[in-house]
TrEMBL record, chain A:
Family in the record: Belongs to the ETF-QO/FixC family.
Keywords: FAD, Flavoprotein, Oxidoreductase
Residues annotated as domain ETF-QO/FixC ubiquinone-binding: 209-283
Domain of life: Bacteria
MF (Gene Ontology): FAD binding; oxidoreductase activity
Protein task: Part of an electron transfer system.
Organism: Rhodovulum euryhalinum
Protein name: Protein FixC
UniProt KW Flavoprotein keyword: yes
Cofactor needs: FAD
UniProt domain FixC-like C-terminal: residue ranges: 371-436
One of the Pfam families matching this protein, by short name: ETFQO_UQ-bd
From TrEMBL, chain B:
Name of the featured protein: Electron transfer flavoprotein beta subunit
Keyword terms: Electron transport, Transport
UniProt source species: Rhodovulum euryhalinum
Gene Ontology MF, one: electron transfer activity
PANTHER family listed in its UniProt record: ELECTRON TRANSFER FLAVOPROTEIN BETA-SUBUNIT, PROTEIN FIXA
Domain of life, per lineage: Bacteria
SMART domains xrefs: ETF (SM00893)
Record-annotated Electron transfer flavoprotein alpha/beta-subunit N-terminal domain positions: 29-225
Length: 436, 289
């Protein structure tokens, strides 16, 4: 016997589940949301960048109450070798706008805040409860969920799976295959406490609201496909590195050792000096791109967020894709409900169509070839950053040699790094084509 | 005295506390950094809650959870409802801010009086103490104000006689275990590890998510004189807050080789003597005398 019947059940209270539940709650639907964490966000990885746009479309005045750390006024890109980094910065006072575009946040606090808005929208939220599997009727249509608590299944017209990257419920229920190691990155991250004033001085910021983001490529990933990152929060720094799970397995490098090396890099160590480590977390990131997206809908169910592999690894965007897919799913389901049409696979086609029209699938389609390109062209993570750093060194050192000789040496370095000029050109073409 | 006519009623006083395992002291200002530290129900209170629910399941009746705290303490009450409590009351008021144990037990006893007027109370439960204050004073303070028999550090409740309105229980005391029989109503503070907290059913969780939490201001809780609340009603003075230093320098691991235990012991002694040269002389002097 079912406990109760809802219009919709949302599995997960991360950005995707919250967006879906919020949208449906606002539309007047009777929604149950279930999360396994002690409180929403308790299982979610700390320290991230929030892209305002996706949230603003649901909660225009979120800045008034959401726990935001700093808005990003400067972005640095670093190419790392063992001793050096070469990079570029973009800093602009136009990021100091009335409605800043990107913020650093602490996910645990942010998710808790978001869940509060969801509850205020009339959604029933229960935590510390894990959904084990989907319940189907005789025709195979999904009609509810079974949890790890006693008391039987809970039924609903539709189940929205916002369960995150692992997607165990969908997998156990036979809706999607097991995650493939080459489609996910493992990210390890630490949060380090530093007094606000120290962060302000160290990163050249004017006040406690301005923040910096550093994205890092090169020796940080030890030859694996991956990147490092560092974000400034108000009173802490998030630092981490993520690489493909298949690469970790092949290289047998422990993730924490990789992060330790990154933290001890001469360009990074001074930024963390005197900091006290607050927490260490590890989490998966779906990075398979467009071709790794599983089946998204079926009779009585649909998938949103990381569970659907909606991450743009090139731009490090995930939470905004999660919120957008969640919102669009919520809108589609509210419309079906209003029209009195059931959430069958045929009727849910509107969800896929709407995603194709949005930046979500347009962007993932644009970068469709990138995951494969990166896997097949390790030189982008190894040789190139090293060559660029060496070239900068040669260019900057004053050692009595004439400039023409130096330029020739730099060019020779570029060529020998890839064997011949053809390969150098090929790398550029490949990247350009995958990017297009 | 017949009490059977009405339903058995326990009230469990709980407190929302910062998860002390995750608290940090600000290295510069020496203040406790609460921001971002998750809150939990004081772990000792959960043994009291489980015991109250166990009695309810055996003898019938209802369990009310009561807390004094900021509006967000509602989370703790909802969590208790999800574990299976029937009803929740939050007393919250700016004027409660800064309450010490005296002011807290005053406010709680007023709220308990008000709850009891609507629904007479048989047992007031509290945990042994809180993990953030560690005073163990609030339970006894409530008992004193309400004139209840005070049964602290209870290890087990053996029997409840509803007709005679008595309870038989075991209490840990310095010399061993006391078996006591008390009249009801009474106040019980439960020891840790005396029962195993249950997991609420899916129905409990759904009810908890939607149940109204009764919220009272100081006035609504029956407090006429705000001078007895909050900072003004709290004679406790916090003189200084500091992060204690580790007692010793960092421990060092030494590896000593020895064929027999005696040889190993000698090797360890040699190391110790090498570190503190006076020790050897002092010890041999003592052993000689
Ligand atoms: C180290 C790291 C850094 C990142 N940085 C950024 C960044 O800077 N910017 C950005 O936009 N994105 C970033 N991302 C990606 C971003 O975190 C994700 O894309 C986003 O969290 C996805 O949201 P979601 O709701 O789909 O899943 P999640 O946030 O993973 O939420 C899933 C929720 O479902 C719950 N759940 C799972 N299974 C069950 C179950 N069976 N029953 C009940 N509940 C369940 C979980 O407890 C969880 O709360 C980062 C990711 C990592 C790992």
């Amino acid at each position: 016997m079912p406990v109760e019947h809802f219009d919709a059940i949302v599995v997960g209270a991360g950005p995707s589940g919250n967006a879906a539940a919020y949208t449906m709650g606002k539309a007047g639907m009777n929604v149950l949301q279930i999360d396994r964490g002690e409180y929403p966000g308790s299982k979610n990885v700390q320290g991230a960048i929030l892209y305002s746009d996706a949230l603003e479309r649901m909660i225009p005045d979120f800045r008034e109450t959401a726990p935001l750390e700093r808005h990003v006024v400067e972005q640095r890109f670093w190419m790392l070798d063992e001793k050096s980094h070469t990079g570029t910065h973009h800093r602009s006072d136009s990021f100091n706008e009335e409605r800043p575009n990107r913020y650093t946040i602490l996910r645990a606090q942010f998710d808790k805040w978001f869940a509060k808005q969801v509850r205020a929208a009339g959604v029933t939220l229960i935590t510390e409860t894990t959904v084990i599997e989907l319940v189907r009727n005789a025709e195979g249509r999904v009609i509810g969920v079974l949890t790890d608590r006693e008391g039987g299944p809970v039924h609903a017209d539709v189940v929205v799976l916002g369960e995150g990257v692992n997607g165990l419920v969908a997998q156990r229920s036979g809706l999607r295959p097991e995650l493939r190691p080459q489609h996910v990155a493992l990210a390890v991250k630490e949060t380090h406490f530093l007094p606000e004033e120290t962060i302000r001085e160290r990163f050249n910021l004017s006040d406690e609201n301005e923040g910096v983001v550093i994205e890092v490529l090169g020796s940080v990933s030890s030859g694996m496909v991956g990147t490092g990152f560092l974000y400034t929060n108000r009173e802490s720094i998030s630092i981490g590195v993520g690489c493909l799970v298949s690469d970790f397995a092949e290289k047998q490098i422990p993730p924490y050792a990789l992060l330790d090396r990154f933290k001890n890099h001469p360009s990074v160590r001074p930024l963390l000096k005197g900091a006290e480590m607050k927490e260490y977390v590890a989490h998966l990131i779906p990075e398979g791109g467009y071709d790794a997206i599983p089946k998204l809908t079926g009779d009585g169910w649909l998938i949103v967020g990381d569970a659907g592999q909606f991450v743009n690894a090139v731009h490090r965007e995930g939470s905004n894709l999660a919120m957008t897919t969640g919102r669009i799913a919520g809108e589609c389901l509210a419309r079906l409900k209003a029209e009195g049409r059931p959430a069958t696979e045929a009727n849910l086609k509107v969800y896929r169509d709407a995603l194709e029209q949005s930046f979500v699938l347009k962007d993932l389609r644009k970068y469709r070839k990138i995951p494969k390109l990166l896997k097949q062209n390790r030189q982008l993570f190894t040789t190139w950053p090293a060559v660029i750093n060496r070239s900068m060194q040669a260019f900057l050192r004053v050692d009595g040699r004439d400039k023409r000789a130096k330029e020739a040496e730099i060019l020779r370095g570029l060529k020998t790094a890839r064997g011949n000029w053809l390969n150098v050109a090929a790398d550029m073409v490949k990247v350009a084509r995958a990017w297009r | 005295m017949t009490r059977l006519a009405r339903e058995f009623h326990s009230v469990v006083c709980i407190k929302q506390v910062p998860d002390s395992a995750q608290i940090r002291v600000h290295p510069v200002t020496n203040t406790i950094m609460r921001q971002g530290v998750p809150t939990i129900i004081n772990p000792y209170d959960l043994f009291a809650l489980e015991e109250a629910m166990r009695l309810r399941d055996e003898y019938g009746g209802t369990v009310t959870v009561l807390t004094m705290g900021p509006p967000m303490a509602e989370d703790a009450l909802r969590r208790a409802l999800g574990l299976g409590a029937n009803r929740a009351v939050l007393i919250t008021d700016r004027r409660f801010a800064g309450s010490d144990t005296l002011a807290t037990s005053f406010a709680l006893s007023k709220a308990l009086t008000r709850i009891g007027e609507e629904h007479p109370i048989d047992i007031v439960f509290t945990g042994k103490q809180t993990i953030d204050g560690d005073t163990a004073q609030v339970g006894p303070g409530i008992a004193r104000r309400l004139g209840l028999n005070q049964l602290t550090y209870v290890a087990a409740i053996d029997a409840l006689d509803r007709d005679g309105a008595t309870i038989t229980l075991r209490r840990r005391s310095e010399g061993g275990v006391q078996v006591l029989r008390s009249r009801l109503p009474c106040l019980i503070t439960m020891l840790e590890d005396t029962n195993t907290l249950r997991r609420g059913t899916i129905q409990d969780m759904l009810r908890a998510a939607r149940a109204p939490v009764t919220t009272w201001s100081a006035e609504e809780a029956g407090i006429a004189d705000p001078m007895q609340c909050g900072l003004r009603g709290s004679p406790t003075v916090v003189k200084r807050v500091f992060a204690p230093r580790p007692r010793a320098d960092k421990a060092e691991m030494v590896v000593v080789e020895g064929k027999t235990p005696a040889q190993t012991a000698d090797a360890v002694l040699d190391l110790l003597f090498a570190q503190s040269p006076n020790l050897e002389a002092a010890l041999s002097a003592r052993f000689k005398s």
